[in-house]
Specification:
The protein is built from two helices and six strands, in the order H-E-H-E-E-E-E-E. By secondary structure, it is α+β, with helices and mostly antiparallel strands. The protein has a single domain, classed as hypothetical protein PF0899 fold. The strands form two sheets. It has a three-stranded mixed beta sheet with strand order 2-1-6, covered by helices on one side. The protein has a three-stranded antiparallel beta sheet with strand order 4-3-5, with no helix packed on it. The structure holds zinc ion. The site of zinc ion has 8 residues, from loops.
Length: 117
């Protein structure tokens, strides 16, 4: 599953970040992880959440609330400049039929914030 690899790398980054900022405290736990996920990232919110919960077992992120904020897709046609709103990145321009679609926003995935216990 695609989401598993992504969930692992997110968790590695989260844990790394927490450990470097909180190196003196031995008992740290993560209460909440807030992520921003673009609509065009191809990630299923529910399966990403499931994978994160699964992969965090036994780590300091176990039991953390996974808060996922969606970023709507914004794209336009490179040929005629028409806006394209479809979630499907394989889509073609409705105006000129070009498949040359540029995504401006909505294909990102990043850690917005981490809340500690
Ligand atoms: Zn077009």
């Amino acid at each position: 599953m695609h989401e598993f690899g992504i969930a692992r790398s997110i968790l590695n980054r989260v844990i790394e970040q927490v450990k470097t900022s909180q190196c003196q405290s031995s008992k740290i736990g993560i209460r909440k992880i807030r992520l921003k996920v673009g609509d065009a990232s191809g990630l299923e919110e529910e399966s990403l959440r499931f994978c994160l919960e699964f992969c965090s077992q036994g780590s300091i992120a176990e039991g953390a609330i996974i808060d996922i904020e969606r970023i709507p897709l914004r794209a336009h046609c490179q040929s005629c400049g028409a806006p394209v709103s479809s979630k499907d990145t394989q889509t073609r321009c409705e105006i000129c039929g070009s498949g040359d679609i540029e995504i401006i926003a909505g294909d990102e995935l990043f850690i917005d914030s981490i809340e500690l216990e």
